[in-house]
Amino acid sequence: MIDSHLHLDDPKLADQTEQILADCRAQGIEFVINNSCDYDSMVNSVKLADTHDNVFATIGMHPHDSKSFDDKFVAAMERYAADPKVVAVGEIGLDYYYDLSDRAIQRDVFAEQIELADKWGLPLTLHVRDAYGDAWDILRAQKKHLNHGVLWHCYSGSAEFARQAANAGHYFAFGGAITFKNARKEDVTAQIPVDRVLSETDSPYMSPEPLRGRVNTPLNIPLIVAKLAQLYQTDVATMDARIRKNTLTLFTRIADYLNSK
Hints:
With 261 residues, the protein is α/β, with parallel strands linked by helices. 42% of the residues lie in helices and 15% in strands. It contains ten helices and eight strands.
């Protein structure tokens, strides 16, 4: 199984990282993708990937931190982009729920990171909350730079938007929220082909049922895959194999890395 989005360097997990990754190996979780949010998390994420065979990294600035985006950050992204264990630009996007950075700045930084991802041949991992209209407008305006794939992390939008993005060839990652009793995701997943679905935990956040409220870890990914298997009316083994194929299709550097071993 695969966790396509988590934050092992978060203070809630940092002192457990080695044990968590060892447990992942023991429990058949093939690899995880550690996502960046700001400068420090980007440095930590790449370091984790370079020192652990079962960790890959993304580079990028979260919309919360867009106000800190500067030339120094871009230069660091440029350095890390050449690392074969760096597999995407993310998590990037828009967050109008918390508004921790000015919305205009968020939009500008999002657009610039889309262009950088294309320059380096990397897919996008998106964080979008309460901003799907503006996010779509930016993606449409930047269409010429969308050449390496788009992933909607922790997708929480409407069924209609899912249909629109799926028709554009985008991917969707689902985590703990899909297991919540009030999630009602059937109408959303009905719009998303099974070959566009990925699994994630967003650890240490968003623990799935029946662990809601606890600190999340990638060891909970089987609960996500089981729920996706239910939604797509298949068995867990088939769903897991499909998710793996989707993940390697989107994150081509992971496929290259695994094939080189």
